[in-house]
Amino acid sequence: MKFVLVGLNHHTAPIAVRERFAFSKHYLPEALNLFVDGQDIVEGMILSTCNRVELLAVTPHESSQGVSCVKKFLKAIHQKCDGYDEHLYCYTDQDVVRHVFRVAASLDSMILGEPQILGQVKEAYATAQALNKTGTLLNKLMHRAFSVAKRVRTETKIGANAISVSYAAVELARRIFTSLEGQTVMLVGAGEMAELAATHLMSAGASHIIVASRSFDKAVQLATKFNGSAVIFDRFRERLPEADILIFATAAPHFVVRVADVAAAMERRRHRPMFIIDISVPRNVDPSINDLEQVFVYDVDDLQAVVENNLRERKQEAERANRLVEEELAAFVAEWRMMAAGPFIAALNAHLAEVAQSEYERHRKRIERLGGMSPEVEQYVREVILTSILRKFAHPLIENIRESAAQGERSRLCETFGLDVRVNTQVQVRWMRSA
């Protein structure tokens, strides 16, 4: 049996192409039923996200024919997708295993180390399982992939550092405050990035949020989302002493808060630390505020510098993660090859048993002429003596089969034991389905 994977992702195709190949969640079950037909494709799953579409298959055919079957299905389903071969990648056998491991471990993601892809892979696998489209090989591969992803997450720091501007704000806040528990956040402006930063801060433990916006209705709406309070924009300075963390994100072309505003607030705060994040362009916060004692001001460039440094660290961790993937790949391939020996061993045992039975029947009449055997003796001959002889004869052959399987020498197995490749393929298909 062969692994085959055909797909495209953010590395190989723009969004305009990816969306042509996407499978909607509603249509996915029907597509899977058509994809895994039990003949060309005996096991399969489909992963479809905004950044990738991949069809993973187990096929009884040789690799090139298996790839052709998957491509044929993909183009039949998406009838307007001819001429996009340049965007597709095709993997077979152990290259499939490596790719699946890397995807699950978020080593092939647009944002290196992001955790969402693992959940998406698990969901795609669960869908295929629910429709009975997986079997021994695919189950083994996916369970190992989830194990690899966990190991990468546990043994490396690939997901430890923020690589989004909004989450970098949380990382910086943690450097200033011993804990974010009980801290108050003030959001001045209600842009998407500011809201996202506030979301991360509240998730990290901040207890209260104050929202000021030139649109008071929007301020109320956003404050309600966080169970906070809204304030009229022109009066946000009056609430500055309450804020431990301030996020400025307005469209104003000038500073909206100055040194005197913050200095007065710090007096009322008794100089407890204040963290100010200015993600506006042009800047909303007078940079000289940073000269005040216990006030820490960061702008977009500062946040981006944190992101770039963290990204470099993630890339270094990715090198360690890739080494783990290769280690797991070698172990999986060895197990997979040993599984491949099963049909050959079964075929050999069946053949030897058939020969033994034939020879026994051929000599039975002569035994009867010599006086025959009692039913008990005949049963002993059949069940003990013949079985013992067969096992001793088969043992070195089975060891040879296993050695050949471990080396991936399928053609040698067929030649050594006189097994037709087509017959053997059918044996494998039957064996895999009964396993």
UniProtKB/TrEMBL annotation:
EC numbers: 1.2.1.70
What are the binding positions for NADP(+) in this chain?
G189, A190, G191, E192, M193, A194
Residue ranges of every copy of the Tetrapyrrole biosynthesis glutamyl-tRNA reductase dimerisation domain listed in the record: 321-415
**Residue numbers for the site described as Important for activity?**
H99
Q: Which residues form the Quinate/shikimate 5-dehydrogenase/glutamyl-tRNA reductase domain?
A: 171-306
Question: GO terms for molecular function, please?
Answer: glutamyl-tRNA reductase activity
Q: Which reaction equations make up its catalytic activity?
A: (S)-4-amino-5-oxopentanoate + tRNA(Glu) + NADP(+) = L-glutamyl-tRNA(Glu) + NADPH + H(+)
**Domain Glutamyl-tRNA reductase N-terminal, first and last residues per copy:** 6-156
Q: Where, in this chain's numbering, is substrate bound? A: T49, C50, N51, R52, S109, E114, P115, Q116, Q120
Q: Note one Pfam family from the annotation.
A: GlutR_N
Q: Which UniProt keywords apply?
A: Coiled coil, NADP, Oxidoreductase, Porphyrin biosynthesis
- CDD domains, per this entry? NAD_bind_Glutamyl_tRNA_reduct
Could you tell me which pathway this protein works in? Porphyrin-containing compound metabolism; protoporphyrin-IX biosynthesis; 5-aminolevulinate from L-glutamyl-tRNA(Glu): step 1/2
InterPro entries found in the cross-reference section: 4pyrrol_synth_GluRdtase, 4pyrrol_synth_GluRdtase_dimer, 4pyrrol_synth_GluRdtase_N, GluRdtase_CS, GluRdtase_dimer_dom_sf, GluRdtase_N_sf, NAD(P)-bd_dom_sf, Shikm_DH/Glu-tRNA_Rdtase
The EC class name is oxidoreductase
Coiled coil located at which positions? 307-335
Q: How does it assemble?
A: Homodimer.
Extra remark: During catalysis, the active site Cys acts as a nucleophile attacking the alpha-carbonyl group of tRNA-bound glutamate with the formation of a thioester intermediate between enzyme and glutamate, and the concomitant release of tRNA(Glu). The thioester intermediate is finally reduced by direct hydride transfer from NADPH, to form the product GSA.
- Quote the function comment for this protein: Catalyzes the NADPH-dependent reduction of glutamyl-tRNA(Glu) to glutamate 1-semialdehyde (GSA).
Family assignment? Belongs to the glutamyl-tRNA reductase family.
What name has this protein been given in UniProt? Glutamyl-tRNA reductase
Lineage of origin: Bacteria, Pseudomonadati, Acidobacteriota, Terriglobia, Terriglobales
Q: Which gene encodes it?
A: hemA
